[in-house]
Amino acid sequence: MTLIKSISGIRGTIGGQVGENLTPIDAVKFAAAYGTWLKSQLNKENYKVVVGRDARISGEMIQNLVMNTLVGLGIHVVDLGLSTTPTVEVAVPMEHADGGIILTASHNPKQWNALKLLNAKGEFLNGTEGEKILEIAEADEMEFSEVDFLGKITRNDAYIDLHIDEVLNLGLVNVDAIKDAKFKVVVDGVNSTGGIAIPELLERLGVEPVKLYCDPTGHFPHNPEPLKEHLTDLSEMVVKERADFGIVVDPDVDRLAFMDENGEMFGEEYTLVACADYVLSKTPGNTVSNMSSSRALRDVTEKHGGTYEASAVGEVNVVELMKKNKAVIGGEGNGGIIYPELHYGRDSLVGVALFLSLLAEKEMKVSELRKTYTSYFMSKKKIQLTPEINVDAILEAMKSRYANENITTIDGVKIDFPENWVHLRKSNTEPIIRIYTEAKSQEEADTLADRFIAEIESVSK
Predict the structure, then answer these.
(1) Which positions fall inside the Alpha-D-phosphohexomutase alpha/beta/alpha domain (predicted)?
(2) Which pLDDT score is estimated for 238?
(3) Distance between CA atoms of residues 162 and 205, nearest Å
């Protein structure tokens, strides 16, 4: 059981000791720190924050604690109830709100939850802002409102529909071509809010959805990270239903992966590659992804005459570099699509609509589309952290050991070899060291990862 306090919010397991887990006391403390910070940034009478949650079991409890803490600070709350991370991000500017909070632990198992914090643009806070909120929380610098100045909670269940409206109104979403194609698609909503949003989006696009685990109970039927080893049921259902392809999202619907008509993974790294291929074919420009993402995005960007740049891991870092480089699309290789034409946030609804547009216009099967992209293979492994492991010392040792290679250190240590690469970094969301590798075959990628795990273990002894 653990509690992780970072610039991107607070994340932890439910139950246990205050300060060591995400207890009600911790939820109230950090919601109060966020509200206090928000009020310190603005000189106004009325404040408004949008709050939504995924379907995990603890969500309603945590949301009520957070909303009523904001009310106690004199902040008005727009309660979206069951929602998605990108829907909350879209709702903040539409509501002319001062910020937003999403209650979700993303791909983490059901015992986890988190407070993800947004600014008035519906974008994640930057490092400086996150640090200030942590300081306020640790110093207990919160002052609550008197009884005549409490905030109010207003419920609004319309925003998933409004979010879908915004997606369908995008110029590059070819609604007519998608409807003409008469697709049939299996959707694995991992019993969270993707089971609400994705089938509704598909129906409005004229796509027949076959629902798999789309009841938003929060009881995840499998590990909620959308990786191949967790998706055997989806694979079987795609084949059984003779569907055109399968869709899986994580619990808060900001990560997206596809499965082809044969029940084989399209590759979550290639979600962004395919969407970027479509967008760049219509609106040439630059792209950005994080350092742990596939080289395939660079290849497709250069094919269309654009420039690719890599940021540190973390959505806020990707967004910052996208703005700087005027990227027309970007995201993260874990299936996160950021399409600025709508908003600067990872959005599976946008990803689905762009992918369907590409597929409809190309008139080819998903397996055929995948063959049009350079094949890279990734290995994503991890080492559980213990108090004895000094991550900084390990990374420094790796940097010294490979000093003659092409090394980037803006986020952990990434070593670019001529034919492959390895990225070593401490996770922001779990107590682990991540070891990502990419190569021209799965065996080579796995071997490279295992080699570095062995080297790390030898250094840490």
Answers:
(1) 8-141, 173-263, 270-374
(2) 98
(3) 15
Rounded Cα gap, residues 68 and 76, in angstroms: 10
Domains in the chain (CATH in brackets) are: 3-156 (3.40.120.10), 163-370 (3.40.120.10), 377-460 (3.30.310.50)
Answer for the pair 397, 355: CB distance below 8 angstroms, yes or no: no
Total-model pTM: 0.92
Give the H/E segment covering residue 86. helix 85-94
Alpha carbon distance 279, 304 (integer Å): 10
- The residues that are catalytic are 106
Determine the Cα angle at 50 with ends 104 and 21, to 5°: 35
Q: What is the pLDDT of residue 7?
A: 63
What is the three-state SS of 188-236? ECCCCCHHHHHHHHHHHCCCEEEEECCCCCCCCCCCCCCCHHHCHHHHH
Q: Which two tokens stand for residue 161?
A: 């529909």
Quick count: other Cβ atoms within 10 Å of Cβ 152?
Answer: 10
d(CA 245, CA 263): 8
Q: Which helix (H) or strand (E) holds 166?
A: helix 159-168
| E-state strands within 104-177 | 112-118, 153-155
Q: Which residue has the tokens 């106004």?
A: 44
How many CB atoms are located within 10 Å of the residue 61 CB? 14
Q: Which residue has the tokens 């009325």?
A: 46
Asked if 10 contacts 115 with a C-beta cutoff of 8 angstroms, the reply is yes
Cα separation, 31 vs 158, in Å, equals 24
Q: Which of 436, 427, 446, 433 is nearest to 393 (CA)?
A: 433
DSSP string, 281-319: HHS--EEEEETTS-THHHHHHHHTT--EEEE-SSHHHHH
Per run of 10 residues, the mean pLDDT along the chain (length 461 residues) is: 74 93 96 96 92 98 98 98 98 98 94 96 93 92 95 98 98 98 98 98 98 97 90 97 98 97 94 98 97 94 96 93 98 95 98 98 98 93 85 91 93 93 86 92 96 89 68
